[in-house]
Design brief:
Layout lengths: L8 H9 L4 H14 L7 H18 L5 H17 L3 H14 L3 H6 L12 E5 L9 H5 L5 E2 L14 E2 L9 H5 L5 E5 L9
Antiparallel strand pairs: 1-4, 2-3
Length: 195
């Protein structure tokens, strides 16, 4: 969302609902609210929204803690009671909808069940499925994929590999792979489990 783009609360909610991860939904909704419909006239809403956004961002980026969850819950409850307009109350309600679901705690434990938060996922190539065509390497703008195309006359070719420190998790390699050898897994999962 650009700063010049101003959406209504209804439009922000519709866009947020398109995401699968509840934290991504809450973060998108909060950022959209701050970018447009928030008037900034009441302290609990304006200050609370900014603080909630910072804490949601920390959780989504893998730096979150139990303290962040407690703070977001307190902020949203205060906004629900003290905001002067319906927009602020709706924002608080949207955040509170997910607080008790356990998904916030999963994120602080390093997991995103919806595989949408980039801090908690990795793209991996299944060696047994890789045909070494090189299409993934060609499309990777980050130069995160290493390997060499298989040639008919060579033996002992090694499948491609994704270097995680370079990968920005854009997903282009996965879309390009003709044999679906690239999978998305949680950072703590063993790729062999997903084969």
């Amino acid at each position: 969302m650009t700063k010049t783009e101003t959406l209504t609360v209804k439009e922000i909610k519709e866009e947020a609902e398109r995401k699968t991860c509840p934290l991504q939904k809450a973060l998108y909704y909060t950022e959209g609210f701050l970018a447009g419909p928030m008037c900034g006239r009441c302290f609990p809403c304006s200050f609370g929204s900014y603080e909630a956004r910072i804490r949601l961002m920390d959780i989504v980026e893998g730096r979150g803690s139990e303290e962040d969850i407690a703070a977001i819950s307190r902020i949203a409850e205060d906004m629900l009671i003290s905001s002067l307009c319906k927009k602020g109350k709706d924002t608080a309600g949207f955040i509170l909808e997910w607080i008790d679901s356990g998904v916030f705690r999963e994120h602080t434990d390093g997991k995103c069940r919806d595989m949408e938060c980039k801090a908690f996922i990795e793209y991996r190539i299944i060696p047994e499925k890789c045909i070494m065509c090189g299409k993934c390497k060609d499309v990777c703008g980050d130069k995160a994929i290493f390997g060499k195309r298989k040639k008919k006359y060579e033996a002992g070719a090694v499948p491609y590999e994704i270097r995680q420190k370079r990968c920005t998790k854009c997903g282009e390699c996965r879309e390009e792979c003709p044999v679906e050898a690239i999978i998305v897994v949680g950072i703590h999962e063993d790729a062999a489990v997903k084969v």
